[in-house]
C-alpha cells in the first residue's frame, strides 16, 4: 500500500517538472521570436525612412526646378509684354506721324483752297480723322457681315448606269460682283451622297456675289468609282429676295468617259425670283410683260428682221406673236411689251424667230425678263446667242439658226434641257429631184413637241450625180423634244417635181390604207439621217423610213418625213490609248448569195460595222466586178478606223441604180437573198 502510495506521489512530481521544462523552452522560443520581430521591424522602419527621404528629396528637387522654370517663364512673359507694349507704342507713334503728315498735307491743300481750314486746331482735326477711320472700319466690317449669305446647292445626279460616285465634289460660284473660294460638298458615312438618280442638298456660307453667271464644279479623284454623271445644279440665295439659279449639265465627270474631264464650268440659263414660289400655276391667264435685251458686249446685234415669239405650255402652244419695236435695231437697248399667250397652261419654253428681212437680218438676243401679270412671277432667261441668217467672220462654221429656244425655269419644276443636236444627212440628188435652190428646211419632231425650222444647204457638186455619196453635217440648239419621232424636210421644187411628189404621196396613201409596210421616195433628195443629242449620250437616232406628205396647198413646196428606224447604242467610255492615234483597221467581208434562181441582185448593198469603240460610216460595197449571182461568194476589203471588238454588222439595200450602171429595170432586182 505504501509503495503504491509512494508511486502515486512521485508521478505528479515528475509531471510538474516536465511541464516546467517545457514552459521554459516555450518561453525561450517566444522571446527569440519577439527579438527577431523587433529586428525586422527596425529594418523595415529604416527602409521606410530611407524611402521617405528619397521622396522628400525628389519633391524638393521638383520644387526647385518648377520654381526656376516659373521664374524663367515669368521673365519670358514679362519680356513679351514689354516687347508688345513697345511695338504698340511704336505703332502709335508711327500712326501719329502718319496722321501728322496727312494733317500737314491737308493743311497745305487747305491753304491753297480755303483759309478757314488753316485756322482750325490740329488736335481737333486729328481727332476727327481718327473718328472717321474708326467709323469707316466699322462700316466695312458691317458691310462684310451683310454681304456674307448662305447658298443652298442642289446637285442632281443623272439616271445613268454607274452615274454615282464616292468622291467629294467642290463648287466655285462666279457672279457679277465676285467669285467664291472653293467650297467642298462632302460625303458622310451615315448618308452617302451622289447616288444614281438622286438629289443632294448642301448649304455653304459665302459672299454676296450678285447675279450668278457660272459655276465651276468637279472632283479631284481618278480611277474606279470616282466618276459621276451630273444632270444639273441649282443654287438658291437664302435671303429675303433670293433667287434660284439653274445650271444644266448632262455630262460625265470621269477620267475614263468621253473627254476625260473631272471639272467643268457650267453656264446659267436663267433664274427665278423665289418671292413668288408656291403660286398656283392654274391662276395664270397667259398674260406676260416681256422685256427683251438686245445686243452683245461689242455693240452688235440690232436687227431689221421681224421678230416673233411663240409660247409652249402644258396645254398646247400659242400662235407666233409679232414683236414690233424700234429699239430692236439698236444694240444695247431693251424693249418691253405685253403679250397674251392664251390658255397654254404652265409654260416650259419660248421660241424667238426672225424672218431674215432687211439689211441686217441677224439678231443677237442677250436675255429676257418675264413678269406674269396674274401671279406676279418674275423669271429671267439668258440666251447670249445669234438668231442668224448669215455666217459671221472668224466664227466656227455652224448650221445657220434663225431661231432660239429658251427653257422656262421655275421653282420645284424640272426644266427641259437645252440640247445641241448633231446630225448627218445622207443626200441623193437623182436627175428627177427638180430642186430649185438646193436648200432644205429641217425640223426635228419628238414626243415633247418640235424645234424651229433651220436651213441645210445641199452642195452644188451633187447636182446630176447618180451616186449616194454626199453626207451633210448639221448642228442645231433647241429645247429637248424628248424621244425623236421624225425629221421633216421642206424644199421647193419645179412643176415636174411637184407632180412627182403628188405621185409619191398617192402611192404612199395606198400602201398605208392596206397596211402594207412599204415606204416611197426613199432615195429622193434625202436618203437617211443620223442624229445624236450629245457625245455623252450612249445612243443615236437612225431615220430611214420615208413618207411624202400630200398637201393641196403646197405651192411648189414639198414636205418629206423620215421616220425613226431604230436607236443604236454607242460607247461613251474613253479609250486608254485615246491620246495616241490608233492605226486604221482592215476588214475582209465575205458575202454568200442563196442558191435559188431569184436570190441574186444587181443593186449595190451597203454595210455598217459596229464595234465597242466606234461605229463606222455606212460604206457602199460598189465594185466594178461585183456580181451578186445565185450560189456565189464575193469578198471585199474595207478600211475603217479602229472599231474595237465587232459586235454587229448592218447590211441594207435601197432602190438605187444597179452596180453595172444599167438603167433597164428588167435586168435588176431590188431583192436579194443573203445566205451568210
Automatic annotation (TrEMBL):
Stretches for region Disordered: 86-142, 656-676
Compositional bias (Acidic residues): 94-118
Membrane spanning stretches: none
Biased amino acid composition, Low complexity: 662-676
Biased composition (Basic residues): 123-138
Domain named PLAT: residues: 149-267, 286-401, 585-676
Organism, as annotated: Plectus sambesii
Protein name, UniProt field: PLAT domain-containing protein
SMART domains with a match to the protein in the record: IQ
Amino acid at each position: 500500500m505504501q509503495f503504491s502510495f509512494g508511486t502515486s506521489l512521485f508521478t505528479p512530481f515528475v509531471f510538474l517538472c516536465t511541464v516546467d521544462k517545457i514552459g521554459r523552452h516555450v518561453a525561450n522560443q517566444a522571446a527569440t521570436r519577439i527579438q527577431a520581430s523587433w529586428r525586422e521591424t527596425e529594418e523595415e522602419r529604416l527602409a521606410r525612412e530611407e524611402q521617405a527621404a528619397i521622396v522628400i528629396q525628389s519633391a524638393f528637387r521638383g520644387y526647385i526646378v518648377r520654381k526656376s522654370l516659373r521664374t524663367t517663364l515669368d521673365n519670358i512673359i514679362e519680356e513679351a509684354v514689354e516687347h508688345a507694349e513697345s511695338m504698340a507704342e511704336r505703332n502709335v507713334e508711327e500712326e501719329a506721324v502718319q496722321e501728322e503728315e496727312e494733317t500737314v498735307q491737308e493743311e497745305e491743300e487747305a491753304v491753297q483752297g480755303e483759309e478757314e481750314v488753316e485756322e482750325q486746331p490740329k488736335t481737333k482735326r486729328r481727332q476727327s480723322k481718327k473718328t472717321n477711320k474708326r467709323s469707316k472700319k466699322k462700316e466695312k466690317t458691317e458691310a462684310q457681315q451683310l454681304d456674307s449669305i448662305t447658298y443652298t446647292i442642289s446637285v442632281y445626279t443623272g439616271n445613268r448606269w454607274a452615274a454615282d460616285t464616292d468622291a467629294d465634289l467642290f463648287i466655285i460660284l462666279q457672279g457679277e460682283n465676285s467669285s467664291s473660294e472653293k467650297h467642298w460638298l462632302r460625303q458622310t458615312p451615315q448618308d452617302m451622297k451622289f447616288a444614281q438618280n438622286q438629289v443632294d442638298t448642301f448649304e455653304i456660307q459665302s459672299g454676296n456675289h450678285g447675279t450668278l453667271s457660272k459655276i465651276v464644279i468637279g472632283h479631284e479623284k481618278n480611277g474606279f468609282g470616282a466618276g459621276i454623271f451630273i444632270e444639273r445644279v441649282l443654287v438658291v440665295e437664302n435671303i429675303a429676295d433670293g433667287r434660284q439659279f439653274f445650271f444644266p449639265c448632262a455630262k460625265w465627270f470621269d477620267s475614263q468617259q468621253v473627254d476625260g474631264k473631272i471639272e467643268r464650268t457650267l453656264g446659267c440659263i436663267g433664274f427665278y425670283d423665289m418671292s413668288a414660289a408656291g403660286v398656283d400655276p392654274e391662276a395664270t391667264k397667259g398674260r406676260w410683260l416681256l422685256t427683251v435685251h438686245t445686243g452683245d458686249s461689242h455693240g452688235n446685234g440690232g436687227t431689221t428682221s421681224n421678230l416673233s415669239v411663240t409660247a409652249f405650255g402644258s396645254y398646247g402652244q400659242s400662235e407666233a406673236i409679232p414683236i414690233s419695236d424700234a429699239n430692236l435695231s439698236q444694240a444695247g437697248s431693251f424693249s418691253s411689251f405685253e403679250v397674251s399667250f392664251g390658255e397654254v397652261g404652265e409654260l416650259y419654253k419660248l421660241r424667238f424667230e426672225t424672218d431674215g428681212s432687211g439689211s441686217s437680218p441677224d439678231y443677237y438676243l442677250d436675255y429676257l425678263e418675264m413678269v406674269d401679270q396674274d401671279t406676279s412671277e418674275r423669271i429671267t432667261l439668258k440666251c447670249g446667242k445669234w438668231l442668224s441668217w448669215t455666217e459671221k467672220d472668224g466664227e466656227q462654221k455652224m448650221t445657220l439658226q434663225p431661231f432660239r429656244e429658251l427653257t422656262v425655269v421655275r421653282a420645284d419644276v424640272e426644266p427641259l434641257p437645252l440640247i445641241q443636236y448633231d446630225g448627218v444627212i445622207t443626200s441623193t440628188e437623182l436627175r428627177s429631184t427638180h430642186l430649185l435652190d438646193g436648200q432644205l428646211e429641217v425640223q426635228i419632231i419628238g414626243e415633247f413637241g418640235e424645234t424651229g425650222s433651220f436651213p441645210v444647204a445641199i452642195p452644188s457638186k451633187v447636182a446630176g450625180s447618180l451616186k449616194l455619196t454626199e453626207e451633210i453635217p448639221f448642228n442645231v440648239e433647241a429645247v429637248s423634244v424628248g424621244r425623236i419621232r421624225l425629221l421633216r424636210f421642206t424644199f421647193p421644187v419645179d412643176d415636174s417635181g411637184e407632180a412627182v411628189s403628188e405621185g409619191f404621196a398617192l402611192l404612199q396613201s395606198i400602201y398605208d390604207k392596206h397596211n402594207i409596210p412599204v415606204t416611197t421616195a426613199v432615195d429622193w433628195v434625202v436618203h437617211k439621217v443620223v442624229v445624236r443629242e450629245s457625245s455623252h449620250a450612249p445612243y443615236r437616232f437612225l431615220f430611214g423610213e420615208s413618207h411624202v406628205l400630200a398637201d393641196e396647198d403646197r405651192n411648189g413646196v414639198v414636205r418629206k418625213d423620215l421616220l425613226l428606224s431604230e436607236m443604236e447604242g454607242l460607247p461613251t467610255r474613253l479609250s486608254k490609248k485615246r491620246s495616241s492615234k490608233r492605226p486604221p483597221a482592215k476588214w475582209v467581208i465575205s458575202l454568200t448569195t442563196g442558191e435559188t434562181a431569184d436570190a441574186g441582185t444587181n443593186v449595190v448593198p451597203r454595210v455598217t460595222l459596229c464595234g465597242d469603240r466606234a461605229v463606222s460610216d455606212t460604206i457602199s460595197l460598189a465594185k466594178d466586178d461585183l456580181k451578186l449571182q445565185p450560189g456565189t461568194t464575193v469578198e471585199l476589203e474595207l478600211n475603217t478606223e479602229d472599231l474595237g471588238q465587232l459586235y454587229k454588222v448592218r447590211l441594207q439595200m435601197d432602190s438605187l441604180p444597179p452596180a453595172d450602171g444599167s438603167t433597164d429595170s428588167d435586168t435588176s432586182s431590188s431583192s436579194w437573198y443573203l445566205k451568210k
